[in-house]
Design goal:
Radius of gyration: 22 Å
Number of strands: 0
Largest sheet: none
CATH class: Mainly Alpha
CATH architecture: Alpha Horseshoe
Structural class: mainly alpha
Number of domains: 1
Order of helices and strands: HHHHHH
Distance between the termini: 67 Å
Mean pLDDT: 87
Length: 182
């Protein structure tokens, strides 16, 4: 007796249920993303206001934090909005922070900032097909990996390695494409 059951039905039923639930939460997710972006914008403004009251000579590590922390918000917004100006501002923020967050002074913070710098540079390089930016990104990831090891930051080490490998593959593909076009 055939009751109309096929082996595909359970996966179809599950797929339909997941699609229904995802759709129901899509508006909530979109709203939450907007709120997070607004919070990032507010944080950027707040750090800029704080910077007016922080002296680099008086407290260089705090000055570096106030310089570098907006970079994360700028990078995230730049990636989400495909906005090269925000990404360039993130790069500038990280580079400013690295003036005081040196490898000798705060090695793990320096390495984490190098990783963030590499991420911002790789986003710009990928967006624009800019091999120089991709090479800078790889150099930043290499710098980060000179401090971030399985022993010093076990959770962060594979992330930086993956970031570097992805950008290296992208750079190789871009060079191959450019060589083929010549």
């Amino acid at each position: 007796m055939n009751i109309g059951y096929t082996p595909e039905q359970p996966s179809q039923i599950i797929g339909a249920a997941l699609a229904e639930r995802t759709g129901a939460h899509e508006a909530e997710i979109t709203d939450l993303s907007r709120k997070l972006d607004a919070s990032r914008q507010a944080a950027i403004g707040l750090y800029r206001a704080i910077l007016e009251n922080v002296s680099r000579a008086g407290d260089p590590l705090v000055w570096a934090a106030v310089q570098g922390n907006p970079g994360n918000a700028l990078r995230t917004l730049g990636q989400r909005e495909n906005d090269p100006e925000r990404l360039e501002a993130a790069v500038a923020a990280y580079r400013a922070a690295l003036e005081e967050w040196t490898r000798d002074r705060v090695p793990l913070q320096w390495a984490a900032t190098q990783d963030s710098l590499g991420t911002a540079l790789s986003t710009l390089g990928e967006r624009d097909g800019d091999t120089d930016k991709l090479e800078e990104a790889i150099a930043a990831f290499d710098a980060a990996l000179s401090v971030i090891t399985p022993e010093t930051a076990a959770h962060h080490f594979p992330v930086v390695q993956r970031n570097r490998a992805r950008v290296l593959a992208l750079l190789e593909d871009l060079r191959a494409t450019q060589a083929g076009a010549d």
